Amino acid sequence: MLKRLLPLALATFAVGTDGYVIAGLLPSIAEDLDVSTPAAGQLVTVFALTLALSAPVTGALTGGLDRRSALLVALGVFVVGNAVTALGTSYGVVMAARVVTAVGASAITAAASSTAAALAPPERRGRALAFVLGGLTLATALGLPLGTLVGSAGWQLALWAVAGVGLLAAIGIAVALPRVELPAASLADRMRPLGQGRVLGLLAVTSLALLGTYTLYTYIAPTLRDATGGSASWTTLVLLVMGFGTLAGNVAAGRLVDRHSPARVLTGTLAVAALALALTPPAVRTLPSTLVWGAVWGVTVGIIVVPQQHRLIALGPASAPVLLGLNSSALYVGIALGGGLGGLAQDWFGLAPASLGPVAAAVTVLALLWHWHTTRLPAPPVAPAHTGAEAGSAAHRAVR
């Protein structure tokens, strides 16, 4: 199983790193392309928005393909997009290349997650999802510092490195991954779950949870200033502790959702996250307390996505590419809105960055309350051919 899942995790690591690496290279990109740093920053914004908007579309269009073919197509677009970005000598070409790259990236995470769910037996599905999503989580911890380090020799080199990781993942998938078919379904069948209130409710929980997280995380460097004394080294240490806490939470999430109700796992996680965020102002006054706080909060961040994906797949295994694509969109919408909310709170109310913690906690409590509401919605009707675990087992048997 590990041999089959490893290239999937490598693919999500490439996507995660690609999303972070540009942010650390903006000054040199702006200088080479002869634009302002804010203009270069739009490369990050456009990438995120394109990924969010295209994820459900690419999920629907590739849902009828076997998972290996879908991944190879998506990785091909992703690798070409990064290569053209690295070769680009004008702002327009680089921007267009980032759009192409985002379209490829939008299909990778959903395809990799639906493949992992189909490969694993139902009782190990959570751990399989967590392992594959571990690539994204590892990118959170290491993608930015590694990309910035490589990019110090030239921002193009960082993009070539990301393209190389994507190509390596594609080779691994072509060699190690069997042909994986999802339960047969027409495009209309794959889109049908979108009319279910429970699906929309789950997607709202994802957006609200990430909105709360990124209300603070977008401004984490100034938030840590008192604890680190403005030292780049100490700030990096705190970020690494948070990143590895997130990775630990991701690993724990897989085991938790295999043993307990995913809804219950998410309830506890959001409650702890809200408490950690509420305690931000006193927690970030000293470096030792900041390290403990960062580790605890990081663990909660690492858990959130796995139970959400697990619940969505259970609602419609044949619709997994579309549902997981929509979950990716909901995630990126939350990230984008979180940065906006944090900025507005500082501008309108004069809040210090650390004081964004209680604001983020309030949003997380809202996510928790909405999550409780979704658990009380009526379960959607299921088709008689493949229901619940049977549909997951049917997908698992379709590996050949």
Describe the structure.
- It is a single chain.
- It contains 19 helices and no strands.
- It is mostly helical and 400 residues long.
- The protein starts with a helix and ends with a helix.
Give the N-to-C terminal Cα separation: 14 Å
In round numbers, the mean pLDDT is 83
Outline, from the CA principal axes? globular
What's the helix count? 19
Sheet bearing the most strands, described?
none
Unreliable runs: 382-400
- Estimate percent helicity: over 70%
The structure class reads mainly alpha
Q: What order do the SSEs take from the amino end to the carboxyl end, as H and E?
A: HHHHHHHHHHHHHHHHHHH
| Quantity of strands, as a count | 0
Name the beta content range. under 5%
Gyration radius from CA atoms, angstroms: 20 Å
Q: Brief overview, please?
A:
By secondary structure, this protein is an all-alpha fold. The protein contains 19 helices and no strands.
